[in-house]
Specification:
- This protein is of the alpha/beta class.
- It has two domains: about 20-35 and about 395-435 and about 470-535, Immunoglobulin-like (Sandwich); about 40-385, Alpha-Beta Barrel (TIM Barrel), CATH 3.20.20.80.
- It is built from twelve helices and 28 strands.
- β18 (about 385-395) and β19 form a beta hairpin.
- α4 (about 170-185) runs parallel beside α5 and α10 (about 330-345) runs parallel beside α11.
- The longest helix is centred in the middle third of the chain and has 19 residues, at about 210-225.
- It is globular, with a radius of gyration of 24 Å.
- Pfam families: Glyco_hydro_79n.
- Keywords: Glycoprotein, Hydrolase, Lysosome, Membrane, Secreted, Signal.
- Its main location: membrane.
Length: about 550
């Protein structure tokens, strides 16, 4: 077989291909219509409340990465946020329901968190000063960040039993904090109510009926404070999905109150679990998340079609992430697959735990230098548009693929993840406009393993090709072929900050649109077809 079409890639990866180590795959893109949509700020990252004393498994990986102590003047932080233009940032986390706001009528000293055996998660109540809130908003306004802020939803409640809290929410401190925010013209996009209090809760829980009543109160406060101005969204509950509880929350709060339902995902196990890496490379394990995305989508359709699903926090491995995996190239397979899966079920926002802090930060907690997942997120944000397109595949389940409308140049953007350690894939991309029923025999949707389809020459539509059309390819591989590397290569070149600390440019390799795509073992490929005929993306 002649591999002339791989010459541009071979210049970047001189040892990439051994002819006997690849398998043929056909992907048929169905661009006649979109099946779901995300939002312009689909990519989101969190900043948490955890102080330096937050430790797990004999390590304390949070350092100075809290909302209260993060160095907001570090130029790398601003540049990392600004590169997304915009990046949604969610401020919240486990301690948010122990946060009070240092407004004039607080009535007690405004002090940070401290260790406390009687407090939730082993910490006391903590307070954010208005001076700190001013500084946070300054960097967000300077960088164009879109802000979601998580409010304390336990204020005023009483503990009724082990882990169960009752009584109405006392909104007075939150309201004064929000009044101050409005008076300063800080552009909060959305107010989130509570953190992991849904269902049986994590540390504490509140019943859905009372929670729904309190969300109505929050909605009324927002209506009063913002008047005729654009009103921020109301988002809740920021917990782990519990179908009955989520459905009841929508029923109680009623129409057009709750704008988005947030849920959290930590599906890889504990941070010290030795199986985290194996789970990331197991396609059957990864696919289990689709059940949650699908169920939440259906719950919203049935009980609150005015709302939308968001992933409010997702770190893969819980308890600060895996120090061996979460900040490495390998984690990008889990992260990007999560983005692809969730988007298929109309998820509008996906917030990665964290922007910085713990082992799972997009940025290194100490140096602020981007980890591999930062570049994965940035490429998704720049290349993958809002419209989600279905596709059919032939071949191995270890090649996972997702298609969206192109973001900047139109056409279609394709993401492919090769989970196989030893086998590369030679991928031919077809437009279903060109496929006849005989060719479709043996092809199934959603990455099913099938046989019997001969590899065909790829083309992007019904137009005749003159051979001059090009596609953009962005191949991500780990440094030195080590999946646990902290440095990622784009088309063979390491992604590193410039001498001035700027995010590097992310140039593609330009390849003839008629040639198959080689996806190397344990590699990731974004491919943009600017001229792909996709009617669903043109509406």
């Amino acid at each position: 077989m002649r591999l002339w079409f791989l010459i541009p890639l071979l210049l970047c990866f001189p040892t990439l291909i051994r002819s006997e180590d690849y398998s043929d795959v056909t992907i048929i893109v169905r661009g006649a219509e979109t099946i779901a949509s995300t939002s312009n700020e689909f990519i989101c990252a969190t900043i948490d409340w955890w102080p330096p004393e937050k430790c797990n498994y004999d390590q304390c990986p949070w350092g100075q990465a809290s909302i209260l102590n993060l160095d907001l003047t570090n130029p790398l932080l601003a540049k990392a946020i600004q590169a997304f233009s915009p990046l949604r940032i969610r401020l919240g986390g486990s301690l948010q329901d122990q946060v009070v706001y240092g407004t004039p009528n607080l009535g007690s000293p405004c002090t940070p968190f401290s260790k406390s055996s009687s407090g939730l998660f082993g910490f006391s109540q903590g307070c954010i000063t208005m001076e700190r809130w001013d500084a946070i908003n300054k960097i967000f306004m300077d960088t164009g960040a879109v802000v979601t802020f998580g409010l304390n939803a336990l204020q005023g409640r009483q503990q009724m039993g082990r882990g169960v809290w009752g009584g109405a929410w006392n909104s007075s401190n939150a309201r004064e904090f929000m009044e101050y925010t409005v008076s300063m013209n800080y552009p909060i996009d959305s107010w989130e109510f509570g953190n992991e209090l849904s269902g049986s809760g994590i540390g504490a829980s509140v019943g859905a009926e009372q929670y729904g009543k309190d969300i109505i109160e929050l909605k009324n406060i927002i209506s009063q404070l913002y008047g005729n101005s654009r009103k921020p969204l109301v988002v809740a509950p920021g917990g782990f999905y519990d179908q009955k509880w989520y459905a009841q929350l929508l029923d109680i709060s009623g129409p057009n109150v709750l704008d988005a339902m947030t849920h959290h995902i930590y599906n890889l196990g504990a941070g010290n679990d030795p199986q985290v890496a194996n789970r990331i490379l197991n396609p059957q394990y990864l696919s289990q998340s689709s059940d949650t995305f699908r169920d939440l989508q259906m719950t919203i359709q049935r009980h609150g079609p005015w709302s939308a699903p968001w992933v409010g926090e997702a770190g893969g491995a819980y308890n600060s992430g895996s120090r061996k995996v979460s900040n490495t190239f390998l984690n990008s397979f889990w992260y990007l697959d999560q983005l692809g899966q969730s988007a298929k079920y109309d998820t509008k926002v996906y917030c990665r735990q964290t922007l910085i802090g713990g082992n799972y930060g997009l940025l290194d907690t100490e140096t602020f230098v981007p980890n591999p997942d930062y570049y994965s997120a940035l490429l998704w944000h720049r290349l993958m548009g809002k419209g989600v397109i279905s596709l059919d595949t032939s071949g191995s389940s270890y090649l996972r693929a997702y298609a969206h409308c192109g973001k900047q140049k139109g056409g279609v953007a394709l993401l492919m993840l090769n989970l196989n350690k030893n086998m590369g894939f030679m991928v031919s991309v077809r437009n279903d406009l060109n496929i006849n029923f005989r060719e479709m025999a043996g092809i199934k949707r959603d990455n099913s393993f099938v046989h019997g389809l001969k590899r065909t020459v790829s083309w992007v539509g019904s137009k005749a090709s003159d051979g001059l059309e090009k596609r953009e390819e962005y191949h991500l591989t780990p440094q030195d072929g080590n999946p646990f590397a902290r440095t990622v290569l784009l088309n063979g070149a390491p992604l590193q900050l410039t001498g001035d600390g700027d995010i590097p440019s992310l140039p593609p390799v330009m390849v003839s649109v008629n040639s198959p795509i080689y996806v190397a073992p344990l590699s990731i490929a974004f491919v943009v077809f600017p001229d792909f005929e996709a009617e669903g993306c043109e509406r």
